[in-house]
Amino acid sequence: MTPVTYRCHNHERGHAATIAEAATAIDLPGPNTDPSDWMNHKNINNHNKSITKRDDLAINGAEPAFGDPLHVGRPNIGNRELFLQYTEQILDSRWLTNNGPVVRELEEKIAEYHNVTQCVAMCSGTIALEIAIRALKLAGEVVVPSYTYIATAHALHWQGIRPVFADIDPKTHNLDPAAVRRALSDKTTGIIGVHLWGRTAAVEALQAIATEHQLKLIFDAAHAFGCSHQGTKVGAFGDCEVLSFHATKFFHTFEGGAVLTNDARLAEKMRLMRNFGFAGVDNVIYPGTNGKMTEISAAMGVSNLQAIEKVVKHNHQIHEAYRQALTDISGLKLLEFNQSESNNYQYAVVEISEDCPISRDRIVEVLHAENILARRYFWPGCHNMKPYRDLYPEANQSLPFTEQVSERVIVLPTGPCMDRASVNTVASVLQVLLDDAAVDQPSV
Fold first, then answer.
1. Mean pLDDT along residues 184-193
2. Which CATH number fits domain 19-75+308-374+413-440: 3.30.70, 3.40.50, 3.90.1150, 2.60.40?
3. Please, are residues 111 and 260 in contact by the beta-carbon 8 Å criterion?
4. pLDDT digits (tens, 9 = 90+) for 329-350
5. What DSSP state is assigned to residue 293?
6. What pTM was computed for the model?
7. What is the pLDDT of residue 5?
8. Under DSSP, is residue 77 helix (H, G, I), strand (E, B) or coil?
9. Can you tell me the distance from the alpha carbon of 2 to that of 362, in angstroms, rounded to the nearest whole number?
10. Where are the domains of the chain?
11. Which CATH fold would you assign to the domain 80-306?
């Protein structure tokens, strides 16, 4: 068996790494390594602490469970040797950007992977979304969820378009089509649905609304690389779908993104727009910007795509380990994926119940003390972030489920630095914390 290389530790520093260090890459196992061997490898994070009672918790003065922090979305490197081979070729050719051969290869491979005809690679998912919005001539108002990453709203606001926030379905965390209908006005030109956590939005219902009202429909598929809806992979829904390849995504290109579509004319328009509108040397035929992906980013993408099934298998095993470890902990519910669909299992999302004896923020505080850097995605909602709170102070009146869910969600560490032992330690912290809180509750 090929030796497994782990780079999960931060040995140069004696203090806990910050959340920003989640952008430090982690090597995947060698090409001949079975991911299950990696998953079951004993104690890759070198933690030996047993947590069975309140005095074992770091928040109460004990040593942290992990010497080095566990992150949500710490990057991986798929095939290091392949990446280095591409890097040598890129340097030798001196073709570093401007729609080079590696970018075109990546576009072809991603389009094939998602069963669409067009993939337009960009320098980031945000720029990809902005260019898609402009290519579709959106203006006025566009309906979006508030429970999403802030870039979804920013991509509209930066272009003078008002993001009109509609509420979510609390069961799916995705846009509620009924709320979308309530948010429409005579100024609405489009809808942006989000496939949150990689679980696809209400595609048919949103398309029906868009068709009925002659609106454009974009899906923000930043979480949904490789995911499917009723057996069809994302990329073919709406007018187009936008991917993010940021370093914290399970599939990444350092920084990057892409637009997927089956509309060749739309794709050609976006290719012009990402390159200042150039249609040949000294021939600008369209107002554009610089949205091009570099060759080195594309090389990382091709290398990661070569290893993607291995990564997805590991993600799935981590998610299943969490499901087993958390199943008997009262007050917590792990969001499940539809096993009949293709999933990337990138996120382990836990929702606390209404009767949970301790607040979500206290749980996160306790986990952080153990160097378990859980996150409160996507609190407090875009509408409660200062730019949009100041612009649209009344928005929260129509977003009860957005506010409810954003106060209850915890995203737990996943990715290449997690194994079954690490998952069980995370679960032990949660078990002790919630059991202790339940005991301390006053009797009724």
1. 98
2. 3.90.1150
3. yes
4. 999 999 999 999 999 999 999 9
5. P
6. 0.90
7. 36
8. strand
9. 42
10. 19-75+308-374+413-440, 80-306
11. Aspartate Aminotransferase; domain 2 (3.40.640)
Structure tokens at 315: 């993600």
Tokens coding 160: 């003078």
Q: Which residues contact 253 (CB under 8 A, 6 or more apart)?
A: 106, 245, 293, 297, 298, 300, 301, 304
Write the CA distances from 70 to 14, 37, 67, 249, 423, integer angstroms. Answer: 15, 20, 9, 15, 10
Q: Give me the residues paired with residue 290 across strands.
A: 275
Among the listed residues 129, 157, 131, the one whose alpha carbon sits nearest the alpha carbon of residue 142: 157
Matching fold, domains 19-75+308-374+413-440 and 80-306: no
Q: What local confidence, expressed as pLDDT, does residue 22 receive?
A: 41
pLDDT band for position 441 (cuts 50, 70, 90): low
- Radius of gyration for the chain, computed over Cα atoms and rounded to the nearest angstrom: 22
Q: What is the mean pLDDT of the chain?
A: 90
**Residue 340, CA distances (Å) to 40, 310, 324 in order:** 25, 19, 20
> Tell me, what's the pLDDT at 31?
41
Distances (CA, A) of 198 to 243, 294, 338: 11, 26, 11
Q: Which two tokens stand for residue 409?
A: 């969600």
The amino acid that residue 8 corresponds to is C
Give, for 260, the enclosing helix (H) or strand (E).
strand 257-261
| CB-CB neighbours of 365 under 10 Å | 13
pLDDT digits (tens, 9 = 90+) for 104-160: 999 999 999 999 999 999 999 999 999 999 999 999 999 999 999 999 999 999 999
